Amino acid sequence: MKPELLPLSNVADALASGAVSPEALLEASLARIRALDGRLHAFLRLTENEARTAAKAAGQRRASGKPLGPLDGVPIALKDIFCMEGVETTCGSKILSGYAPPYDATVVRRLKQAGAVIVGKLNMDEFAMGSSTENSAFGPTRNPWDLTRTPGGSSGGSAAAVAARLVPGALGTDTGGSIRQPAALVGCAGLKPTYGRVSRFGVIAFASSLDQVGPFAQDVRGVAHLLAAIAGHDPNDQTSSSRPVPDYAAGLDRGVRGLRIGVPREYFGEGLSPEVEKAVRAGIEKLRAAGAEVREISLPNSPHAIATYYIVATAEASSNLARYDGVRYGHRAKASQLLEMYEKTRAEGFGAEVKRRIMLGTYVLSAGYYDAYYLRAQKVRALIRRDFDQAFATVDATVSPTSPTTAFKLGEKMDDPLAMYLNDVYTVPANLAGLPGISVPCGFDSKGLPVGLQLIGKPFEEETLLRIAHAAEPSEHRLPPLAEGR
Amino acid sequence: MAIDRAQVRHVARLARLALSEEEEERFAAQLGHVLEYVERLQAVDVAGVEPLSFAGDAAAGLPLREDEPRPSLPRDKVLAQAPEHNGEAFLVPRILE
């Protein structure tokens, strides 16, 4: 198989053996983007010049036998939420059109230090608010398995680019499922690490108590390589943990014998598509056959997660997005008065979903409502966390569907915000509780659309989570029709 | 929970968002719909529960660093991103007559 079609860890092996050079790999990736992305729309812009310089340097290091690590020379793309010095960074919003940050996000700096070749910026729902990438101000991304369907969101560009083999790896962010849900809908692996595992310095903020950065790759080993490169303490992010970063790829093959995996009954109820359930149950049987001890558990406060999330996340968003006022960067509306300038700038710059969430967040924080909404939601959030703490006394991870359905049609849920929010029913609890979660492919429905299996683990135990995910992932990765040029 | 146009206008003013009449109407309906959904939390027993605002590394908490001067971003690079500046400061419409 052509090296550019291989999973990330095999790409790293091909670079290490000299079977392919970083320069050739980059050109192959750019050629695929040119050939296929007109139909997919995963990319918002390419960074070809920077990428060629980086690939050349990586090639020299590889040739002299001094690679920086497994990512040295691997093409990687970034959700457009990561600040990259001198490169336009819009967060999917018109309000940041033309904004070229004066610095690199910590994760961007770390990828560069690991030798990764950054090829461009990927489409997303505006300010990461959405589950379909349709809220991008620059048009939706499509699903490489069926171009009439969504790749999920908000990191839909990242997921689609990896699934279509435009790049072997990408970074996204996950506030309520924005890595795991699109990974499930396009059939790749996507990890949301523990809150605090990866720095968010230079990552445009949505909901600060929930946001976390994570990787996409075809295979779990690729995800492990990317996590090892980006994880670790950063003095510029107070919430980032100083716990040591293990070699996540090293223990992947240790298997799951003796590990206890809980199946939360609340994740298999009303609203779950029977075809998704069937594929996930088959994935659970695969783990059992590999030696894991599988038992049913209960996370009784799960049914409150969506309501809790849409209070906490919108409240924090309304505060974070106050900074877009037309003064320091981005769009400014014409106005003669300051207040008028703020109101018009924000009216012109933000799309409908962002306005809706700012309104909801402002409402729940406004005088007289704080206790009833925000404070109460933070208390229910504590109960959701307590459910997991109790479950983790008897199991090492939970297993469930990632999303209740496979990829839905573009436009299908755009007129009903609540229906769109309910896509996140199985993913938001991990964000509320600060836990690591991963989605890996576990089969297809009768339409040939991928199904994702989600594992949620104990805080800072990504090693165990990845080990289980590796046991659950398929040994072969089927190519979506678009990736084969069909 | 119903929310009327006057409440929408009040919240929009707090959020510094100019809304069209059509948006006011649409958001009143949609926000009402979402608020109705989140009402379910009122039935959860939270007596004696401490709110959870930080779900990170509990052992480490949120450590503070020494308050020492450090170099900032270069002024010209930051100002270059502003819609209007005079080389020293951000410019905005006149506030005082």
First-last Cα distance of chain A: 17 Å
Secondary-structure element string of chain A: HHEHEHEHEHEEHEHEHHHHEHHEEH
> What coarse outline of chain A follows from CA principal-axis ratios?
globular
What's the CATH first level of the domain at 5-43 in chain B? Answer: Mainly Alpha
Largest sheet of chain B: none
First-last Cα distance of chain B:
43 Å
What name goes with the CATH superfamily of chain A?
Answer: Amidase signature (AS) domain
Work out the helix count of chain B. Answer: 3
In short:
The complex is a heterodimer of chains A (486) and B (97). With 486 residues, chain A is of the alpha/beta class.
Question: How would you characterize the overall build of this protein?
Answer:
- The complex is a heterodimer of chains A (486) and B (97).
- Chain A is α/β, with parallel strands linked by helices and 486 residues long.
- In chain A, α5 packs parallel to α6.
- Chain A contains 15 helices and 11 strands.
- The mean pLDDT of chain A is 97.
- Helix content of chain A is 37%, strand content 13%.
- In chain A, β2, α4 (106-113) and β3 (117-122) form a beta-alpha-beta unit.
- Chain A has an 11-stranded mixed beta sheet with strand order 1-3-2-4-6-5-10-11-9-7-8, with helices on both faces.
- Chain A has one domain: Amidase signature (AS) enzymes (Alpha-Beta Complex).
- Chain B is mainly α.
- Chain B has a domain at 5-43: Glu-tRNAGln amidotransferase C subunit, N-terminal domain (Histone, subunit A, Orthogonal Bundle), CATH 1.10.20.60.
- In chain B, α1 (5-14) packs across α2.
- Chain B is flat.
- Chain B starts with a helix and ends in an 18-residue tail after the last helix.
- The mean pLDDT of chain B is 93.
- Classes of the chains: A alpha/beta (486), B mainly alpha (97).
- The interface between A and B is large, with 74 and 54 residues.
